[in-house]
Each structure stands twice: as structure tokens, then as C-alpha cells.
Design goal:
Blueprint: H1 17-25, H2 31-47, H3 61-72, H4 77-84, H5 88-91, H6 96-103, H7 105-114, H8 125-142, H9 145-159, H10 166-186, H11 190-204, H12 206-240, E1 245-250, H13 254-263, H14 268-272, E2 275-281, H15 284-297, E3 306-307, E4 320-325, E5 331-338, H16 339-347, H17 364-381, H18 386-396, E6 401-405, E7 411-415, H19 420-427, H20 429-433, E8 435-440, E9 443-445, E10 457-461, H21 471-474, H22 478-510, H23 520-529, H24 535-543, H25 549-560, H26 564-570, E11 577-579, E12 587-589, E13 601-606, E14 610-615, H27 621-624, E15 631-632, E16 634-636, E17 644-653, H28 658-668, E18 672-681, E19 685-694, H29 697-708, E20 713-719
């Protein structure tokens, strides 16, 4: 291979046709930059020499095709060059230093960002994909052009998917539909998104794609005359009102038809029974004038108008949307936008590329994409697991959004089904952590309330309020989920250290000593041998069941030099540890016996989970006692707060209204019903299993008494007994 630093220009007459085609496409660049692009091809061709694609073509045809896709978007020279060389670092002997020396640090950074990360070792393919995706998004956060190259790479791979085997086609198609098409949409690149979706749909469900495509063609053939008449009527009306506009008919894609049929449970006929048009004008003011003109021509459908110019979508998309009642009995969907808005809608972040240059400010799609990527960078800093991070990102890629107002008039875009709690975390993590309620359009609502576009949301906070695990069930945004999990992990660690301290103290006390009596040098030696950095790690490990407290105590005492006979004699004197039930993340209550305050209980150390609490009479305790080193002597504290789950088996006379009567009796005893199911049922009698929330054993006894007094119950008892 010739030295990369050799900058002798290549004789273009020897270039293959696909490179000459690229040269034509990048003609918008200065001549010197075009020469650099041709030089990149030369370097790439030598680096990839001898490599071929599955189709049998030379490998270099793929990166050149990717560069061609980006040239159609009018991208800068660095992006085009990086696209040509995007696989060289991974698949060839070309080094990063050589790349930077020949084409500059920017190109080397871009190629580095795009390079796949398969060389890293992972425990599973899924984890590898998640980690690669995470790194890709972080590279995106540094330079948006990385994802543009990656999307163009994926688009060309999808166009040439036929050479792959069937399982590979399905895997790549699913990944495209789940990840890459939504990213293209999030970046406002609707043209890319639409082609990725249709190619993915065709590869994943070829028969469905063929049937829907044929039906679309047939439907369009039947409606061509009607489409022409409506288009002419719109153009005539706009001209009469002195509005310069271009009117274009819109055709739905096979994927969008399929998605709506599946998600909205609509038939093909219902979805195709709509005429779509786009009106492109010269200014934002003309958009509103054009809207008035089309509303004057055909009557608008109530509540079907959306102004995305005043309130752009989260990806920077701007347009006016309206639905009209047409002359052929079918609705007409009209989008009105300027040529600039049309370009941004089609190309998103790639429209009028202005990357850190003096050519003007970034367009709305670029600004919003950077905002989103910046929030992703914050999220990944607080997320240890790659799989958790990718799950959060997938949530953020929901295509449907709600637009909400803060009390100061700022607009926040959140995914569909977002709650007031998501809104709180979108404002600021501290606001979310201390949220207690919300005012939506000045009405007080719970934090789990789902929000709708256009609402004014105000979050009420309290300094003492903290997140709780139930919040994870309410939120839909990645930011909220990450923040809540981060807080709970911190809490769990604090609780684990405190509880582990109590457990080790009890174990040492039973051996006639205490943690304070263990010399620091002995403790440090024990921690070093156990490969632990701090005492807190040891205490947390004990509470989470990863270490047995009395074994640790025995080892510490032995290391201090106390006789083993003393250790054996003292073991039986161990006191029970008192629990309040508030030891978050360290204690859990078993589902097999549902222990309540007031019950005699035993703890079992489960590795990684901490202490699982059982009733002493639980049938499973016999098996647990076979591992005495993991059994923990515990008892309820006098002052126990909170609600606990209990199950009640109730035998009733089977007649109308009996369920309501029993439920009313349970409610009258100040207990919440979580769930109810019929266990047995015939014409005369039925057995019901109620899952309830009660304060303690005494509260449950009160519930049972009230239920028995209803007169419709033949038996009521705690389950299991």
C-alpha cells in the first residue's frame, strides 16, 4: 500500500463509474475539497483491497455508496471523506494516526466515532449490541455527523440486504425498525426514516409488504382523477388569493399503512379513504394566509388543526396540519409549510448543514438534536448497565409527543403517555426528586396523572419529599427512570450499610466483643484479604446476603486472637435484630406467607437481595433452616409504620351483589383492595381470594371480623393459614 502521506492526485480518467458518479454529486464542494474526496477513495480502495461484500462486489463500493447518500444531503467534505473511510479502522491495517495525518483530526474523530465496537468482550450478543449503541450515541453527542454517516451506512446496507441469509436479514431489519428509523425521526430526517421503515418492513414481512404495496397501487389508480381535481381546486384558490404556492399530492407508504392498521385497529379502506396534500409557500406569514384560503375552499374538521409552526415538534419539524371535508365524501389532509420548513422536515439535522461554521446558526432540527443528545450524555453518566441505557433511549424515541407549557410559558415536549412526574424530571432532577403533586391547568392532580398536549403544568415540591420505588411504574421517560433508579440505589446502599452494621454488631456481641473492640490493623487486614476498599463495602455485602454475619464475626475474632472455644460457647446468646419494615432495598417480604407486623418472623439471607422475611409457621421455613448460616434472628420493632400485603380467602353464598357487600366491609375497616379473584365457583357458593393492604396482624383481624358480620359469608380466614 502506498504511504498515506503521498498526496499525488489521482488521474480521474482511471476512476470506476461509481466514483465518477460520486465526483458529480460532490460538485457543490470547492475543487480542492473534491480532490480530497477522490484521494479518500484512493486510500480506501488500497486499504480494502481484496475484500468483497456478500454480493461479490469489491468492498469499497459500499463506503463510496454511503458517501453518495450523504452527498445528496449536501454534507461537508469531512463527512464525505469519513464516510468513504468509515470501515478502515476496524477492517483494515490503516491506523488512526495515518488517517489523521492524511485527512486531519476531524476526519479521524468521525471515523473513530462510526467504527463498530465488536472487538470488546461482552457476556452476551445483546449486551454487545447495547454497548455498541451506547458508544455510538455518545459519539453522536460529540459530533452529530457521526450519526449521519451511521444512518447512511445503515440505509445502504438495507438497500443491499438481499445478499444476506434470512436470519441476518430479519435481525438487521428488526434493528432498523426499532433503533435506526426512530433515530432518523428524532433527528427530523423524515426521508431517511421513511425509506428505512419501508426497507425494514419489506425484509421482515415480505408477504405483508407485497400485499399492501399492490393495494396502494390499485387504490391510487382508481383515485387519480379525484386527486387531480382537488389539487387543481387548491391551486386555483391559492392563486385567486394572490398566494404563491406549490401543491403536491402525498402518498402513504406501505409501512405507515401497516403500522396504523395494527396500532389504530383500522382497515386498509379506512386509511386509504383520505386524500393528502402538501402546500409549500414562501414565508411563515403565507402559511397562515394559505391555511385561511384552503379553509375557505373546503370546511375544516373540528379539532383536527395543529400548529407545529408556533410549537415545533421535538425534532424541529414545523408545519400547519389541517383536515378538510372534501367534495368526494372523503377527508383531505393538508400540510402547509415554507420551502425552508419542507427541507428541514425531509432532511432534519442535515438540512442546510451548518456545523460550527460562520454560515449562520444551526437550524431548529440541529439545535433540538443537540439538546436531546446532551440529555442522553447526562443519562448515561448515571446508568451503569448498557441494557438499561438502551431501554431509556428507546423510550425517548417514541414518535408521538405531547407538548406542555411551564408556568413561565416555556414549551416541553415529552413522549406520549408521559405523566406529571415525567414533566417534573424534565424541568430538573431536583424538582422530580422533591415532587409531591402537580397542578394541571390550575387543577390539583396526582403525580401519576397522564398529560395531554397544550396543558399548563406546575409541579408542587416539598423539601422532605423523596422518590419511592412505585414511581418507576408511573414514568415513561428515560431521564425520569434513570434519576429515580439512581436515587434508590443510593438509598439502598445507605440502608444496607446501616443494617449490615446492626447484623455484624449482633454477631460480634454474641461472641462477647464489638466492632469497636476489633483493632483497626486487624480490620484493615481483613478488608484487604477480602478485596474490599472500605468497611462500608463489607457492611453492605453482609446486608445484601453476599457474606454471612456470624462467619465474618468469627473470622474477625479469630484474626484478633480469641480462642475458638469461646466463640463456640457464645454463639447461642445472639440477640434478635429488630426491624421497622422501612429498611428499603435490604428487606423484602416473601410472597409465600405475607408476614405482617405482630407475626413471629425469621429472616433468610438471599445472595444479592438481602434479607427475605418469612413467618415462622411458613411451610418453606423447614427447607430454609437447612442452611442455618443464612437464617437471621429478627423480630418486629414496637413502632412499625406502612402498609403490608395480606391475602384473605373468603367463602360466600353465590348471589348478585355479594362481591360489592364484601368489598364495602373491607373498605369500612380502612383496608385497600389490591386484587380479587375467584378461586372456585358454582351455582350455590364461591371462594374469593382478596389481596389487601393492612397495617398489622390486629388490623387484619379487624377486617376478618367485619367481613364475617356481612351475613353473606360462610368462612373468612387468612391465606395461607
Amino acid at each position: 500500500m502506498p504511504a498515506v502521506t503521498d498526496s499525488t492526485p489521482l488521474d480521474t480518467s482511471t476512476l470506476p463509474p461509481y466514483v465518477l458518479a460520486l465526483k458529480e454529486r460532490v460538485a457543490y464542494l470547492p475543487e480542492s475539497q473534491v480532490a480530497r474526496v477522490i484521494r479518500a477513495y484512493e486510500v480506501g480502495a488500497v486499504a480494502h483491497e481484496g475484500q468483497a461484500r456478500k454480493s461479490g462486489e469489491p468492498y469499497i463500493t459500499h463506503p463510496v455508496a454511503v458517501a453518495g447518500i450523504l452527498a445528496e444531503l449536501g454534507m461537508d467534505a469531512e463527512t464525505i471523506i469519513a464516510a468513504i473511510l468509515h470501515d478502515t479502522l476496524e477492517d483494515t491495517s490503516l491506523s488512526r494516526a495515518e488517517l489523521a495525518g492524511e485527512f486531519g483530526e476531524t476526519v479521524a474523530e468521525l471515523v473513530d466515532g462510526v467504527t463498530k465496537l465488536d472487538k470488546m468482550s461482552f457476556s452476551s450478543r445483546q449486551e454487545a449490541d447495547a454497548e455498541s449503541f451506547r458508544k455510538m450515541l455518545l459519539a453522536m453527542a460529540r459530533d452529530l455527523r457521526v450519526i449521519l454517516i451511521k444512518l447512511a451506512d445503515r440505509l445502504h446496507n438495507m438497500r443491499t440486504l438481499g445478499a444476506k441469509d434470512a436470519p441476518s436479514r430479519r435481525r438487521i431489519a428488526r434493528e432498523t425498525l426499532e433503533i435506526y428509523a426512530p433515530i432518523a425521526q428524532r433527528l427530523g430526517m423524515n426521508k431517511f426514516k421513511a425509506e428505512l421503515q419501508d426497507l425494514g418492513f419489506r425484509a421482515l414481512h415480505p408477504d405483508r409488504y407485497r400485499v399492501i404495496s399492490e393495494r396502494i397501487r390499485a387504490a391510487l389508480g382508481n383515485r387519480r382523477e379525484a386527486m387531480g381535481k382537488i389539487e387543481a381546486a387548491l391551486s386555483t384558490r391559492l392563486t385567486a388569493d394572490h398566494i404563491t404556492a406549490k401543491v403536491v399530492g402525498r402518498i402513504k407508504s406501505p409501512w405507515s399503512i401497516y403500522s396504523k392498521m395494527r396500532n389504530e385497529h383500522k382497515s386498509f379502506a379506512q386509511l386509504m379513504d383520505v386524500y393528502g396534500f402538501r402546500v409549500v409557500v414562501d414565508s411563515a406569514m403565507s402559511c397562515y394566509m394559505a391555511l385561511g384560503a384552503v379553509h375557505g375552499l373546503y370546511k375544516p374538521v373540528d379539532r383536527r388543526f395543529k400548529d407545529f409552526i408556533a410549537i415545533p415538534k421535538a425534532n424541529g419539524y414545523q408545519s400547519l396540519h389541517t383536515v378538510l371535508l372534501g367534495p368526494f365524501g372523503a377527508p383531505i389532509e393538508v400540510q402547509v409549510r415554507t420551502a425552508e420548513m419542507d427541507s428541514v422536515a425531509e432532511r432534519g439535522v442535515a438540512a442546510h448543514w451548518a456545523y460550527k461554521t460562520d454560515s449562520g446558526p444551526a437550524n431548529s432540527a440541529q439545535a433540538r438534536a443537540r439538546e436531546w443528545l446532551s440529555s442522553l450524555a447526562d443519562s448515561q453518566a448515571n446508568t451503569v448497565s448498557s441494557s438499561e441505557f438502551i431501554e431509556n433511549v428507546k423510550i425517548d424515541l417514541f414518535p408521538d409527543e405531547v407538548y406542555l407549557f411551564t408556568p413561565r410559558g416555556d414549551i416541553l415536549a415529552l413522549p406520549r403517555n408521559a405523566t406529571a412526574l415525567d414533566f417534573a424530571y424534565a424541568v430538573h432532577t431536583d424538582v422530580g426528586d422533591h415532587a409531591v403533586a402537580a397542578r394541571v391547568d390550575k387543577k390539583l392532580v396526582p403525580l401519576r396523572t397522564r398529560l395531554e398536549s397544550g396543558q399548563l403544568v406546575e409541579i408542587i415540591t416539598a423539601p422532605s419529599a423523596v422518590p419511592n420505588p412505585a414511581w418507576l411504574e408511573s414514568v415513561v421517560t428515560g431521564k425520569a427512570r434513570t434519576a429515580i433508579r439512581q436515587y434508590l440505589k443510593h438509598l439502598q446502599h445507605e440502608d444496607a450499610v446501616d443494617f449490615g452494621h446492626r447484623m455484624l454488631d449482633r454477631a460480634l456481641d454474641a461472641l462477647g466483643t464489638s466492632l469497636d473492640a476489633i483493632p483497626p490493623a486487624v480490620l484493615d487486614r481483613f478488608l484487604e484479604t477480602s478485596k474490599l476498599k472500605r468497611l462500608e463495602e463489607l457492611l453492605s455485602d453482609i446486608a445484601l446476603g453476599n457474606r454471612i454475619p456470624h462467619l465474618v464475626a468469627s473470622q474477625l475474632v479469630a484474626a484478633r486472637g480469641k480462642k475458638s472455644s469461646e466463640v463456640q460457647q457464645a454463639t447461642h446468646a445472639m440477640e434478635k435484630i429488630r426491624i421497622t419494615g422501612a429498611e428499603r432495598g435490604v428487606l423484602s417480604f416473601s410472597n409465600c406467607c405475607h408476614p405482617l407486623p405482630g407475626d413471629e418472623i425469621i429472616g433468610y439471607l438471599s445472595s444479592g437481595k438481602g434479607i427475605v422475611v418469612h413467618r415462622v409457621e411458613c411451610p418453606n421455613v423447614v427447607e430454609l433452616r437447612k442452611s442455618p448460616e443464612r437464617c437471621v434472628a429478627i423480630e418486629w420493632d414496637r413502632d412499625v409504620q406502612g402498609d403490608y400485603r395480606a391475602e384473605l380467602r373468603i367463602e360466600v353464598i353465590n348471589r348478585p351483589g355479594v362481591l360489592a357487600t364484601v368489598a364495602a366491609a373491607i373498605a369500612a375497616a380502612n383496608s385497600n383492595i389490591e386484587n380479587v379473584e375467584y378461586v372456585e365457583r358454582d351455582a350455590a357458593a364461591a371462594t374469593l381470594l382478596f389481596a389487601l393492604e393492612v397495617k398489622n396482624r390486629k388490623h387484619l383481624a379487624d377486617v376478618i371480623r367485619r367481613v364475617r358480620r356481612t351475613g353473606v359469608v360462610s368462612g373468612a380466614y387468612r391465606y395461607p393459614l
